Amino acid sequence: MTTSSLPLDFSLEELWMPFTANRAFKRAPRLLASAAGMHYRDVEGRTILDGTAGLWCVNAGHCRPAVVQAIQQSAATLDFAPGFQMGHPASFALAQQLAALAPGDLDHVFFANSGSEAVDSALKIALAYHQARGEPRRVRFVGRLRGYHGVGFGGISVGGIDINKKAFAAQLLPQVDHLPHTHDLAHNAFTRGQPGWGAHLADALEEIVAARGADTIAAVIVEPVAGSTGVLVPPKGYLERLRALCTKHSILLIFDEVITGFGRLGAAFGASYFGVQPDMMTVAKGITNGAVPMGAVIVRGAIYDSVVNAAAESGIEFFHGYTYSGHPLASAAGLATLALYQSEGLFQRAAALAPFWEEAVHSLKDVSKVVDVRNLGLVAGIELEPRAGAPGARGVETLQGCFRNGLLVRVTGDIIALSPSLIIERAHIEELVDILRGVLQRLP
Fold first, then answer.
1. Is the Cβ–Cβ distance between 422 and 350 less than 8 Å?
2. Pairing of strands 280-283, 295-300
3. Considering the entire predicted model, what is its pTM?
4. Among 74, 65, 119, residue whose Cα is nearest residue 94
5. What is the pLDDT of residues 176-190, one digit of tens each?
């Protein structure tokens, strides 16, 4: 496909695309025109099997009528309502349902517009909580190498992707440490589910505590499963040990569930799947099935109470928020999406499909240049041996080759990440793996 062959009457030049090699893309664009269920259709009319739920977000499948109708009705009835000193019923209803879905005493919800905003909000909530409790010295955050927490300055700071930080390093948050990541092919290659090696890596938090002092650390933030850096599955016992250490030192534990939330692992949240209770969760993506931008922080009631009760009754307790927090259209989409998840049993469906998914993706083990396959729930990472002198080239070629053959995948360097919608059928899984195998086998 070339720019000149596109049946379009607009230019590609003016748009500065995010996280995209703009010049290369505009020489050979991949443009999607419509979507339904498990498929996209591009501008040339080709059907593309969606192997990534859009961008980890369309968990219930594309253009579901119930979600579409809810958005249309809201747009025609209440297009916008201010969230500062005002409110509207749908945002309260959605918060109530999210609190009921979340595990344990995670029962209060602060709305944002994306995962990036949710992370920055959670970090601010952590600081506000410790200030309210009379521990203002707790300002340090601990993230993890190869972690991704969005693109706000806070999220980049606690994240662990060097290339994301390089251009902004001079202005990132100064008091941040990082745990080691858990990915080690020497011990864990081709593991099905959680690796057996690596729980001890959580003990690095003790080293940070010894060096910095527990009374300076506000929160630890990790993804239950790191998605954007290539599907890094936590070792057995790792999250449990991290929880115990945070409890021991009165440090808040934040789970970034932007990817693992809303059924991706076969449970409502990663915290539910692993049986590990964080103090806060950040969510986005699947909260509205990707149809309207929305993010949220779900917090323990004790955190909310500490911050709110520390202020005068008529005063603003938390000086933070967004114009579009709890937007009416997003709230309507969220309510319709949660109803779909429940009525169609999509979380349970993902759990039931997970063994078939595991067998299918691990059938790629013997394909040349595949050095690892890892999976959990309905997510998988296929890691390729980097080409000498050209790291990431095979990943890009796989993305392009799959699209030419009717499959959308996501790549991070030389890792292919797969995360289909929870409505996927076994025939779709077989088609996905067959297309991917053919593309991989042709890689130089």
1. yes
2. antiparallel
3. 0.96
4. 74
5. 999 999 999 999 999
